[in-house]
Specification:
By secondary structure, this protein is mostly helical. The protein has ten helices and 13 strands. Helix 6 packs antiparallel against helix 7 and helix 6 runs parallel beside helix 8. It is globular and about 55 Å long.
Length: 325
């Protein structure tokens, strides 16, 4: 349609700033920062933003809030932009912290009877008690931002572990050991599969969170869960010339779709490798992963043209005001 999508225009900043940093040409970062400047001019909903924006007017055209499809990587990139520039831009960290405060206070729920923690959606009128597998990136995001001696560290790490535990259950409760595309939290038996979302297309988000949580905690259970998932992919998705999407994770028939998404090798298998490699070949103190799992070096000396101050964003400013209700 005529709307731009939050997770698209909010997920170009790392790459464009990287180009400016390494070419010296400011046009790339300038394009990325126009987006951030425009977003900061809009009122947020408890630190979060709706999914659709009119690119002509610069106004949001809906009120839906989600950390799944259409919203996810915008929030990931708030934190990662701050990390990329050596944690030198407090305004980005404030935007991220405000968004996490909103998510935790308004979108975080627990299932019945097991108390599994999940991130719901809000349509603008009502809650949708469902969670996409895409949302399983939240564990990695929160864990990455929870090691800076900040007052939120402990809370963010606890939520990271709890949401990832729910994602693990989305795998372990299925006969194939593979997660469906999404689950619905119904008030009984914790969650159920949605009729049209029983498939697994080899997504990386849960393995990503296992890798990041293991990196910071060194708890062996994250590798154990990861190995069980790897074995499930090998058993049910392995094909003669690659891996195929599994159309129904409740069926143990070895039925596969004749397609393999590019992110399976670029992300899922890469995060499996990093989870199990004892040498930590890509240390998170020196690299930040973009949303497609490509490692980018953290800037030791960020160029002025990649920093918000060049575009009129002062670190002494409040990023925006989060409403109380």
């Amino acid at each position: 349609g005529k709307s731009a999508i939050l997770s698209e225009f909010g997920t170009i900043q790392l790459e464009l700033k990287y180009l400016t940093q390494h070419t010296g040409d400011p046009k790339y970062a300038a394009a990325a920062m126009r987006v951030m400047t425009a977003l900061r001019a809009q009122p947020s909903i408890h630190g979060m933003y709706p999914t659709y924006l009119n690119p002509n007017s610069g106004k949001f055209t809906n009120a839906a809030i989600t950390f799944g499809a259409l919203g996810d990587s915008y929030y990931e990139y708030l934190l990662k932009q701050w990390v990329q520039t050596g944690k030198t831009e407090p305004w980005l960290r404030r935007m991220y912290d405000d968004a996490m405060r909103g998510m935790i206070d308004y979108l975080l729920f627990q299932s019945s009877p097991s108390g599994l923690v999940y991130v719901a959606e809000h349509s603008g009128r009502m809650y949708k008690h469902k969670m996409d597998h895409l949302v399983c990136f939240v564990g990695a995001m929160l864990a990455l931002g929870a090691h800076d001696s900040l007052p939120t560290d402990e809370e963010h790490m606890a939520v990271a572990e709890a949401v990832t535990d729910t994602c693990i259950q989305m795998y372990e409760r299925m006969p194939t050991g593979l997660s469906p595309e999404l689950v619905e939290f119904t008030g009984a038996n914790d969650f159920r599969l949605a009729k049209n979302a029983r498939f697994n297309i080899l997504r990386p988000e849960t393995v990503e969170s296992l890798f990041v949580l293991h990196y910071f905690t060194r708890r062996p259970e994250y590798r154990d869960h990861g190995w069980a998932m790897f074995e499930a992919f090998e058993k049910w998705a392995r094909a003669p010339s690659g891996y195929g999407a599994v159309p129904n994770v409740e069926e143990t028939t070895h039925r596969q779709d004749d397609k393999m998404e590019s992110f399976f090798l670029a992300e899922t298998m890469k995060y499996f490798y990093l989870l199990f490699d004892p040498t930590d070949p890509i240390p998170l103190e020196k690299y930040v992963f973009n949303t497609e799992a490509h490692p980018l070096t953290i800037f030791d000396h960020p160029a002025e043209t990649v920093l918000g101050v060049t575009y009129g964003i002062s670190d002494s400013e409040t990023a925006y005001s989060v409403p109380d209700s």
